[in-house]
Amino acid sequence: MFKSTKSTKYIKSIAAIASLVLIGSVAACGPADSKASDPDIARSYDVSKVQKDDAVAALVPEAVKKTGELTVGVNVSYAPAEFFAADGKTPVGYEIDFSKALAKVMGLNAKIMHAQFDSIIPAIGSKYNVGISGFTVNAERMKSVDFIAYANAGLSFEVRKGNPTKVDTKNLCGKKVTLETGTVGEPIMEEAKKQCAANNDKPLEIMSFKEQTDATTALLSGRADVMYADTPVAGYAAVKNPGKLEILENSKDSEPMGAAVKKGDTAMLKAVKAGIDKLMKSGVYKEILKKWGVEDVAIEKTVVNPQV
């Protein structure tokens, strides 16, 4: 039912975050400011060294230039891509750093706007200039937005340590699967649910949550048998809950992830693509990914509306 791909490389990369968290905690023992005392904030990429690129800035639509801001729709609950630091109010993560760096290159300041995941795409072009929130590119989403693909990531199944409910990813009938509402994994699970019913097998129950953190909690608490999420997200959950979670080897092959702009907004599409291209060429893009231990999601060049 599902293709298999190795997720081990993601886990090794994200495991590096755990050691950084410990280092940050030790450093915080003495007097320090809030940034030094919060390892997640301290680990964030320093975007102050990212400079405006005049050629990129020239492509930014005048209406956006006048505001001086790049409004970015983000669901800040999808660690390590975007989540709130220990202070409960500071958005951090590799896509937060990426968004801030993108805005700087465009000659703007990033305005990170937290929203429920499934509400972001419908509001791109009205409330947000761009959506950067772990969006997997698919045909359904491309009906309403254009994508600039900037990364690749797969999907993984995650269970409690030891797989106590004996989850078999080739047959999820009779199991409870938790995931975040609106993610690309949801229709995949819906199809699996239909297959169970068609085969007169035990029903597959989908537990869909507006926030990824709630989906993870459902797994940890035992309310769900298995979680289905982007591999970097699943890996980070395992790191943040040592000895409690593990990733099963079966996962969906990697697919493009992209920044979303309003469908048909050619000017914004060109500006955002040029900005991301600049970050890739300058090395900032890979530096940000390395900071968060997810360099395995990197691609060499952007692709507009890739075939999926």
UniProtKB/TrEMBL annotation:
The keyword Disulfide bond does not apply. Residues 69-296 form the Solute-binding protein family 3/N-terminal domain. It holds the Pfam family SBP_bac_3. InterPro entries: Solute-binding_3/MltF_N (IPR001638). Residues 1-28 form the signal peptide. SUPFAM superfamilies: Periplasmic binding protein-like II (SSF53850). Coiled coil: none annotated. Keywords: Signal. PANTHER family: ARGININE-BINDING EXTRACELLULAR PROTEIN ARTP, MEMBRANE-BOUND LYTIC MUREIN TRANSGLYCOSYLASE F. This is ABC transporter substrate-binding protein. It comes from Gardnerella vaginalis.
